[in-house]
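Readers of this paper often ask what the protein records in our data store actually look like. Nothing more is needed to write down the fold, since each code stands for a local backbone conformation. Below, we set out a record of this kind in full and without editing:
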Amino acid sequence: MKLFEKIANPREIRRKLGLNQQEFWSRIGVTQSGGSRYESGRNMPKPVRELLRLVHVEQIDLSKVRREDFEIVEYLKETHPDLYKSLRKAVRARMEAQGDVVADSTEA
């Protein structure tokens, strides 16, 4: 799934994860009633859509992510692009070996 790509069916994602609306939506700062509206077809704002993707599709624990992490990644991409690509490939292979789903992402 690409950055800001439309989430086709948040209800389906929630059900696959086995979460009720309160559990699912509160993890990204949305009320249960707000989440219910999104599940019923109301347009989801881009920030909510991106949080849903990061937390529930990519399975990223946002409490562990720091700004410095992003700065390190950007620095590595800019100064050592071959190393970045090699590390990215190794991480993807490891995730696939562990049975984790590797989301389709754009090359930055």
Notes: The longest helix spans residues 81-97. Helices lie at 10-17, 21-26, 32-39, 46-57, 67-79, 81-97. Confidence is low (pLDDT under 50) at residues 104-108. The chain is about 60% helix and 0% strand.
